[in-house]
Amino acid sequence: MGMNKSDDVTWDSFAEGLWRENPVFVMLLGMCPVLAVTNSAINALAMGLATTFVLMASGLLISLMRHLIPKQVRIAAFIVIIATFVTVVDYSIQAISLDLYNALGAFIQLIVVNCIILGRAEAYASKRRPALALISALGMGAGFTFALLCLGVVREILGAGALFGFDLFGANFEPWVVMVLPPGGFIILGAWLLLFDWRKHRTQLRSLQEERGRAG
Question: What is the pLDDT of residues 91-148, one digit of tens each?
């Protein structure tokens, strides 16, 4: 059985944030946590999951309340809603692991002003029904988590010879210390952006060649 129109809309809403409009590799949003907390894979995963939770919870609530929030105070209302769920995440991480909480530092609280979340609330959740808002938020959160892991995994392997804290290469491995320092974040981010840009141009070139072939 083929996918119906509703399935297409649902998949498009999810894939938009995960790949086509990836918040980091395509839209270049949320660069502060991307560069600051990706010195290890576990930090990257924790920040990605925390942001995904806030995206989904705030997006769902904003969508449910979209007809009740006056337009004049919508941004202030969105920030209050987002801040509420950030507080939940903040205390949850603190209760689960103090080491992780200290590693993520102030970037947990700064989720409140993350332009990915506020922008999604204003541009999408406040104009869509709850199911679509939730799926879109999940896709955007998954895309953000994927991007963080792309950096965190590479930086931890090269900078510490480990992955999620497990040693990979033994005592003889000489780590690239620069990879767990701020310059390493810029280096790896630049490499990933170059790869995504190359893939984008390659896809566009292939589409152009196919169009010319059909026209010929």
Answer: 999 999 999 999 888 888 888 888 889 888 888 888 888 988 899 899 999 999 999 9
Closest by Cα among 135, 143, 119 to 24: 143
Q: Residue 162 pairs with which residues in a beta bridge?
A: 167
The pTM of this model reads 0.87
Question: How does strand 162-163 pair with strand 166-167?
Answer: antiparallel
Could you tell me if residue 125 is inside a domain? Answer: yes
Closest CA to 48 of 31, 33, 60: 33
Distance CA 159, CA 169 (A): 12
How far, in Å, CA of 152 to CA of 113, rounded?
22
Q: Residue 66 contacts by C-beta under 8 Å, 6 or more apart in sequence?
A: 125, 126, 127
Q: Does residue 127 belong to any structural domain of this protein?
A: yes
The residues, ordered by sequence, that sit 6+ positions from 28 with a Cβ below 8 Å of its Cβ are none
Q: Is residue 195 part of a domain?
A: yes
Helices (H), the chain: 5-15, 31-36, 41-64, 74-96, 98-104, 115-123, 130-160, 182-215
| Distance in angstroms (rounded) separating the CA atoms of residues 68 and 64 | 9
To 5 degrees, how large is the angle CA 191–CA 196–CA 199? 125
